[in-house]
Every structure is written in C-alpha cells, then in structure tokens.
C-alpha cells in the first residue's frame, strides 16, 4: 500500500533526525487509519473499510512464539482479530492452533514483512530458528488455491468434504456477537484452520537481516528526560509543568486536590452510593491498551486497591488522537472538522469521517464491566499521532497532538458528566524503532503537547475549563500521570528507569513487549498509590466519599 503523500516526505531528507527504514517502504497507515480499501482478496475475512492494521505485536509474529491467545487480555485479542479473524474465531471456539500457524502475513495488511522481523536476531543468535516468516505470505498472496480460499470459494477439506470458508466467516461473526458455537461449528472452524495450514504448503524462505533503528543516534543521545531537563529543548524549558517544575503550580494543585476529593462511589445513575463504583478509564491507541490491560491485571490483584474502583481499558489499537477526535467531531466547536481533515491529509491519509468504534467501543466495554458512563470519574490518557514526521517538524507535529488531546478531553467530559480528573502520560522510548511509525525524537517531543494542554488550562482556556464559576465546564482537571520516557538504557536519575531493546516487540521495536507493559503497569500503579490526589480515591480508606 503506497503512501498517498509524496515519497520525499518520508525519505528523511527534510529532517536530519530521521531516515526511512532500510529495505522497505514507509506506510502511512501502519499506526492509525487509512482512507483506502482493503485488498479484494481479504474481503472474505472481513478486512475491509477504513481501519488499517498496526504493526504486528511480537506475540503475533509467526515463528517467534508458539502459544495461543488464551493468556492475552481481550484488548490484545482484538488487535489480533484485525490480522486474521478466522484464526481468532478458532481460538475463541476452543481451537489450539499456535499463533505461528494461525496468523498469516499479508503485504496488503500494512504489516508487510521487512527487515524488522529479524530485529531480535542479534540477541537471539543461539536460537537459529528456521521457521518461515515469508513462506506463508508468498502462498497467501500468490498461490492460486489460496486466492480462491480468500475469495470464499469452497475448498477440499479432510476426507474430501469441501470447506466453505464463508461459513467459517459466519461462525466467526457469531462468536464475535457473543453467541456460543455448537460443537459442530467449533470443529468446522478447526477444519478451516487446518485447511489453511495445509495450503500453506510448508514453503520456506531465508531469514531476513535485522532491521536498524531509524532514529538518528546523535539526536537521540542529546535527549534528556523532560523532568530532568535543566536547559532548553528547541526553545522549550524543562520540567513537566514548565519552568523546571515537576509539580503543578500551587493554584492548579489545589484545584486538582479538590477535584480528587469529589471522586466517590456512584451508582449507575451517577448518584453517591456507599456500594457504588469509581471508574478509572483509559483512552488511547495500541501501546495504551497493551500497557493498560496489564495494569488492569496488576491493579485488580493488588489488595491495597479499593474494591470500589473499577478499571476499564477503553483504549483501542490503531486509534490515534485524530481518530478519537473525528469520532466525536459533532461535539466539538465549529471548524474542528476542517482542522481534523486537514491534519489527516498532512499525514498522508484521507479520512472524511471517524472509524466509529472509539467512543462507542468504550460504551460497550463499560457495559461489559458492569458500570455506566456516569460512574467514570478519572481518565488515564496516553495518546499519539501516526507518522508524526508527516505532520511537520517540532513543534508542528506536537501541536497536532495537543489539539487532539483537547478534543478528547471535551468529548470525554460530554460523555462522562461526573469526570473529575484526567492523568496524561506520554510515550515510552522510541529510539529502537525500525519503522517511521513513531521513532525518536517524536516520542520524546510529544511530551510537550501534554504540557501545553495543562499550561493552557492553567491560563484559563475556556475549552479546558473545569470551574463552573468561570462558565460552562468543558474538561476535567488535567495533570501529569507517570512520566514514562527514559533515554534507552541510560538509567533515569529519579528512579533508574531504562528501556532496553528486549522491552519492545521484534516486529517494529515500537510497541511494548511483556517486560515494557509490566514496567508501565508498575509505574502507573505506584503513581496512583502515592500521588496525593489519586490515593484519595484509589486506596480503600479514601474511596468512601468526600472529606
């Protein structure tokens, strides 16, 4: 899928800190949305429309791990479904096929194999794995029998009985709708999976060379964590709140503590209730859901967390700030639709309307969690924009993210009338990234977008007003959550945080692997248990109501 913008925009010639990935084209829709249609051969699997697929997380990479999805959180399964719905249907109806056998790679799925598939080879050189990464790709795209399969044509299954892949697709939809498949349907999907594997034909290809990071190491070496920055960066001073400060100014701190004091258990209608609930909701993209789903597991196992606090992962893969904004554009001031469309165009993507599954998806997750929108009182927002290099140099790309965050806060306040506080966190280290998805220094620079939002609220921007005495309430009180960026393996002075290559999935070194998810989960949990405002409602002794 070729970029819709000019090739020179991604060549690295306009920015010395970035160069195009060696040996592969850059895809503008790898992280977010694409205005193009899915290739016809994938229509049989329901992979059509505007939703593009993000780079495949390592746990979905063929030949890297042999395991099912049973150990992964539902949000990660959701991302996998975007790659191969039939495979996920097999898992959900009792299939046991390992991921390496059930998830095909397709060049039209915006996860084209490239040198990044071998990016961990240097540190795994003792494994000498010969499992194919590209073999199934060739069979899938070029093989005549497989082309028929993808069009839904019947195929010969075991015992000579044809397999109707359209029927397998219907079973998948039944499972996704929450219906329980019959034993016969389970067996049928398994047969379909076996036929797909049989047609794979065992083709093999030589392993690819390890991809190199696309970030300029000289630029990365000069980056200093924002909470440690003593001088300036591109004209911006240090400190999470500016002026070298890592704590909110006194007046904003007081407003935040007051908002935290108002968080209390509420019933489904939003009324105070001793047996009510306090919903902590996440909003963001793929990295967010991968990290927050792990946080949810850790937090719910922690005996110190209040039983009244319900953790809901509302983030969704491939849904960046612009997508969340466009999905709620009807709730935004006049002119925002044009701004959003223009931003999408600058990023090389055409988008006339949102994906339609962000805010509605949150509602479904709230319902599944046994809570309502009126019980949502705190947000954790970790957001980014896809291909920020297409949005301009700093500060332009960060200004786009800033606008998206303001939009998200406005829309969230509309949907969640009892929302009091929003905690913002920026991205983890991006210096190992092997694609243009979100390398350095963009991951670092996006922290300034968060700071600008908070500073604008402190200055009294009406679109960020939390005080009814000053007019219509349009946003919760916004403060920093845990700051997650550290410069690679260089320990952060405050807590020793570091990010190693092994913390990231092998396919792109952008998405967090298991160890990185755990680090973020631990940092977020520590923050909520020690922050003077968050601990008021997150801990059992504090979640009994205002004091």
Give an overview of the whole structure.
The longest helix has 20 residues, at about 395-415. By secondary structure, this protein is an alpha/beta fold. About 35% of the residues lie in helices and about 5% in strands. Residues about 1-160 have low confidence and may be disordered.
Main β-sheet, in a few words? 5 strands, parallel
Counting DSSP E segments of at least 2 residues, the number of strands comes to: 9
The strand line-up of the biggest sheet is 6-5-7-8-9
Task: Give the overall silhouette.
Answer: globular
Report the β-strand fraction as a percent range: 5-15%
Oligomerization status of the protein chains:
single chain
Q: How would you spell out the order of helices and strands?
A: HHHHHEEHHHEEHEHEHHHEHEHEHH
Radius of gyration, CA atoms, in whole angstroms = 23 Å
How far do the termini sit from each other? 57 Å
pLDDT averaged residue by residue: 75
Count of separate DSSP helical elements: 17
**SS-based class:** alpha/beta
List low-pLDDT spans: 1-159
Percentage of residues assigned to helices = 25-40%
């Amino acid at each position: 899928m070729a970029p819709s913008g000019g090739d020179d925009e991604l060549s690295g010639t306009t920015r010395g800190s970035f160069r195009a990935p060696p040996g592969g084209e850059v895809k503008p829709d790898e992280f977010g949305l694409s205005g193009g249609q899915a290739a016809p051969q994938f229509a049989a699997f329901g992979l059509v429309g505007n939703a593009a697929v993000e780079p495949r997380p390592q746990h979905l990479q063929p030949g890297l791990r042999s395991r099912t999805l049973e150990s992964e959180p539902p949000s990660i399964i959701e991302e996998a479904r975007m790659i191969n719905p039939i495979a996920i249907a097999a898992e959900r109806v009792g299939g046991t096929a390992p991921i390496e056998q059930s998830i095909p790679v397709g060049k039209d799925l915006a996860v084209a194999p490239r040198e990044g598939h071998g990016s961990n080879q240097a540190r795994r050189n003792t494994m000498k794995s010969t499992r194919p990464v590209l073999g199934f790709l060739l069979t899938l795209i070029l093989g005549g029998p497989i082309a028929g399969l993808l069009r839904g044509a019947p195929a010969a299954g075991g015992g000579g009985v044809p397999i109707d892949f359209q029927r397998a697709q219907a079973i998948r939809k039944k499972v996704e709708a929450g219906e329980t498949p019959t034993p016969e349907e389970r067996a049928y999907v398994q047969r379909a999976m076996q036929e797909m594997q049989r047609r794979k034909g065992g083709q093999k290809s030589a392993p690819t060379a390890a991809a190199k990071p696309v970030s300029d190491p000289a630029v990365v070496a000069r980056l200093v964590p924002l909470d440690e920055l003593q001088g300036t960066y591109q004209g911006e001073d240090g400190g999470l709140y500016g002026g070298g400060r890592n704590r909110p100014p006194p007046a904003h701190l007081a407003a935040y503590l007051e908002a935290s004091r108002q968080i209390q258990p509420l019933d489904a209608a939003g009324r105070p209730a001793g047996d009510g609930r306090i919903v902590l909701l996440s909003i963001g993209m793929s990295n967010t859901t991968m990290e927050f789903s792990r946080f949810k597991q850790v937090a719910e196992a922690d005996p110190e967390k209040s039983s009244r606090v319900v953790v809901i992962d509302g983030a969704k893969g491939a849904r960046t700030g612009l997508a969340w904004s466009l999905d709620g554009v009807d709730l935004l001031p006049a002119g925002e639709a044009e701004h959003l469309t223009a931003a999408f165009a600058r990023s090389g993507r055409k988008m006339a309307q949102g994906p339609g599954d962000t805010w509605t998806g949150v509602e479904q997750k709230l319902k599944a969690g046994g809570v309502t929108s009126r019980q949502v009182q705190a947000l954790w927002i970790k957001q980014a924009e896809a291909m920020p290099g297409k949005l301009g140099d700093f500060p332009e790309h960060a200004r786009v993210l800033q606008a998206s965050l303001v939009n998200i806060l406005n829309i969230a306040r509309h949907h969640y009338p009892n929302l009091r506080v929003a905690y913002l966190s920026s991205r983890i280290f991006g210096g190992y990234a092997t694609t243009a998805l979100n390398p350095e220094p963009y991951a670092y620079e996006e922290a300034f977008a968060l700071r600008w939002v908070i500073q604008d609220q402190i200055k009294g921007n009406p679109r960020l007003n939390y005080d009814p005495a000053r007019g219509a309430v349009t946003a919760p009180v916004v403060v920093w959550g845990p700051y997650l960026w550290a410069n690679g393996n260089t320990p952060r002075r405050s807590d020793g945080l570091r990010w190693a290559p092994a913390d990231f999935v092998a396919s792109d070194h952008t998405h967090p692997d298991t160890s990185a998810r755990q680090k973020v989960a631990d940092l977020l949990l520590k923050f909520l248990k020690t922050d003077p405002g968050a601990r008021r409602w997150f801990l059992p002794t504090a979640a009994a109501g205002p004091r």
